[in-house]
Amino acid sequence: MTRTATILTGLLASLTILSAQSAPPGAQPPARPLRVIAFGAHPDDAELKASGVAALWAAEGAKVKFVAMTNGDVGHFAMAGGPLAKRRKAEVAECARILGIENEVLDIHDGELVPSLENRKKMARLIRDWQADIVLGHRPYDYHADHRYTGVLMDDAAVLVVAPFFVPDTPPTRRNPVFLYYSDAFQDPKPFNPTVVVGIDGLADKKWQCVSAMPSQFGDKDSWQGRTLPGVPEGDREREAYLLDQVKKRSAGVADQYRERLIALYGRERGQAVKYAEAFQLSQYGRQASVEEL
Could you read off the pLDDT of 193-224 as tens digits, one per residue? Predict the structure, then answer.
């Protein structure tokens, strides 16, 4: 087992909840698998920020679900509306199949997510229905309004998911989940500060396959990345390879930026060897798990 898998297994073990079912005398009670829900503003955000750890968790037997808070229906330069929303929904469904997880796309227009009471209830219901032990999402300081409001909604739902009479049509979580933010480069009002950095080298190929399954974002000439990144090649194959390489560089950049944190978590030899990583910051809301537990 790799050191990465060991750390993820430790996280699984530390957050596993014992089943309520009784076990025969002298037998170990059956364990309830870890349950993780990851929110992205659009159908590609959770996939970009957490598909590496999702693949690792799924391989260890955890139940993982990605949720896109909007349908992504304006995230392209040549198509929009229902056709784009359907296309992106199919893309992230394929990504979920590759990773071995579940997914859902909410039918809220891209660019129109607001931190309303209705949407707070939607997020709380999703967390409660999934009975999540860990919740992932954007910080509320991101560049895009949909990203920011996904983070705000996550913060606002953090305490309410255990309140029995908030959205009482769903059962409260058994205890307050751990809430973790994705990494980002924004500095104002405060920079991202990683609590845990996870090397994803062992299953990074699944992340790259997931990205390649989303050509509306990482393949088309008129995809968002195809039109906004500098130096994108004209040829289809060359463009797809170039855009995938940009994603690989981002994951490598996380490992390089937080190398000392990786060394602290993995030991010097293993921490220095990690090529690709994903990083997460513990929210001040929700259950305050210790660094050792994570």
Answer: 999 999 999 999 999 999 999 999 999 999 99
Q: Is residue 128 part of a domain?
A: yes
Helix, strand, coil: what percent of the chain each, to 5?
45, 15, 40
Residue 71: its H or E element: none
- Per DSSP bridges, beta strands 102-105 and 63-68 are parallel
Per the CB < 8 A criterion, the answer to whether 223 and 88 are in contact is: no
Tell me if 256 is assigned to some domain.
Answer: no
> And the tokens for 158?
């953090």
The answer to whether the beta carbons of residues 140 and 182 sit under 8 Å apart is no
pTM: 0.90
Q: pLDDT for 59-71, tens place per residue?
A: 999 999 999 999 9
CATH of the domain at 184: 3.40.50.10320
* Count of structural domains within the chain: 1
Alpha carbons 233 and 236: distance in angstroms, whole number? 8
Show Cβ contacts of residue 252 under 8 Å, excluding neighbours closer than 6 positions. Answer: 275, 276
pLDDT higher than threshold 90 for residue 16: no
